[in-house]
Amino acid sequence: MFLQIFAGSLVLLASILVMAPSAWLVEAAFLRFHGWLISEPHGPKLILVVAGTALWALAMLTVGVWLWTLTFWQLGAFATMEESLYFSMVTFTTLGYGDVLMPHRWRILGAMAAANGLLNFGLLTALLVEALRHVRMHQVASRRR
Question: Which Pfam families match (predicted)?
Fold first, then answer.
């Protein structure tokens, strides 16, 4: 049990340590291009913000899934990388089909992966909405001037 909690905590921490600096870099990019993003034409730039932010969010989720995949595979929880990846994706997204189950001795680790996925999806959704809100709000304000 303690090995599961320790390993799961390390993967959770690694996930945070990947996401936090990347969020900072995305914010720095928004600040760098702020003037350009709020200038006319607004439509194509809003599409660029949506696409860019969504791709960044997908990249962060992919990193999280792979961190768990490698953890499960290295610990021998699953026989193949494909099975580890499939379980990681289903668990991280909290989909939980139930067709591939975590071995009994590693089940706490599976729950930690689901919690990590839920937190990552929530955080990334909030950041995506905030990015869109920020750009759109400033675009509308620049139009009124």
Answer: Ion_trans_2 (PF07885)
Residue 93's domain comprises 2-144
Distance separating alpha carbons of residues 41 and 53, to the nearest angstrom: 19
What is the band of 35 on the pLDDT scale with cuts at 50, 70, 90?
Answer: confident
Provide the domain count of the chain.
1
Sign of the alpha-carbon dihedral angle for 85, 70, 121, 117: positive
Taking the C-alpha atoms of residue 7 and residue 71, their distance in angstroms, rounded to an integer, is 8
DSSP codes joined into one string, 4-40: HHHHHHHHHHHHHHHHHHHHHHHHHHHHHTHHHHHSS
| DSSP conformational letter for 102 | -
Whole-angstrom Cα distance, residue 117 to residue 91? 8
| Residue bearing the bigger pLDDT, 94 or 73 | 73
Q: Are 11 and 112 in contact (CB under 8 A)?
A: yes
> 47 Cβ partners below 8 Å, 6+ apart?
none
Task: Determine the Cα–Cα distance for residues 139 and 42; give it in Å rounded to an integer.
Answer: 7
Amino acid at 20: A
Residue with tokens 């937190």: 119
